[in-house]
Amino acid sequence: MNRHRSDIHSLAAAYALHALDTAEREEFVAHLAHCEDCHGDVTEFEATAARLASAVGQDPPAALKQRTLTAVENVRQFPPQVPAARPVAGLAQRLKRRAMPLALAAAVAAAVSFAGLAAWQHRQNEDAQRQARQVQRQLDAVSDVLAAPDARAVHGRTTNGALATVVSSERQNRAVFTATGLPAPARGHTYQLWLDHDGTMRPAGFIRSDGTVLVDGEPADATAVGLTVEPDGGSAQPTTQPLLLLALPS
């Protein structure tokens, strides 16, 4: 293998994601035994991969159960089928004539109710599928950065105690931000990411709580990634002191 020794550090992310071939894996395992920096990077990458896997699952909306039960209650059910006594022939004919309009009205009402429920469920399914596709695209983009041959990671701690990691790929011109132990922001506020371009802070997306997100924007010309608390919806410029200003890996 002709790999330069200094290049072996770049295999940490691919190793954590089981993306190395047999020869590369054996070489990296031997290197990992005596490289504390790579050991730390592998630990962070594996933790990030685990958080990404957990992000795929989606809990149903809290109100979904109640809306379903409410819709079901409005659907007319068929009466129990029991053997009927044989009435006098004339009376049976009169009852049958009177029952037909009622049965028809009940059938129409049930059909309308079922149609409305089916349409509502279809909309719910479409929304869930759309959200799943968005999550999958995000996961694919994050995984591409983590598995990039030139992936580099830096670690830091926010002023409110959270651990933060930024992984960037110069080749892909993308970066990923991961937070662990991030306290919930005050009501009406959110955490906003920034890219520092020679002192000019540009919005770079949001992170609501612990997890991993793709940093919006291109980090190629940026020197650092910042994190602040902003009002819901974000700000054009930081309105609070940065909780973190983490230099991008070179």
Highlighted features:
250 residues, alpha+beta, Arc Repressor Mutant, subunit A, Immunoglobulin-like, 3 domains, four-stranded antiparallel β-sheet, globular
Quick gist of this model?
The protein has helices spanning 12-16, 22-32, 36-56, 64-73, 89-146, and strands at 152-157, 163-169, 174-180, 189-197, 200-207, 211-214, 224-231, 244-247. The protein is of the alpha+beta class and 250 residues long. Strand 1 (152-157) and strand 2 (163-169) form a beta hairpin.
The biggest beta sheet is recorded as:
4 strands, antiparallel
Number of strands: 8
Structural class of the helices, strands and pairings? alpha+beta
Show unreliable segments. none
Number of helices: 5
**CATH-defined fold name of the largest domain:** Immunoglobulin-like
Counted up, domains total 3
Task: Determine Rg (CA atoms, Å).
Answer: 29 Å
Q: Name the shape in a single word.
A: globular
Strand order of the largest sheet: 1-2-3-6
Strand residue percentage: 15-25%
For this structure, the quaternary state is single chain
Overall residue-averaged pLDDT value: 76
CATH class of the largest domain, please?
A: Mainly Beta
Helix content: 40-55%
CATH architecture group name of the largest domain: Sandwich
Cα(first) to Cα(last) distance is: 26 Å
The sequence of SSEs as H and E is: HHHHHEEEEEEEE
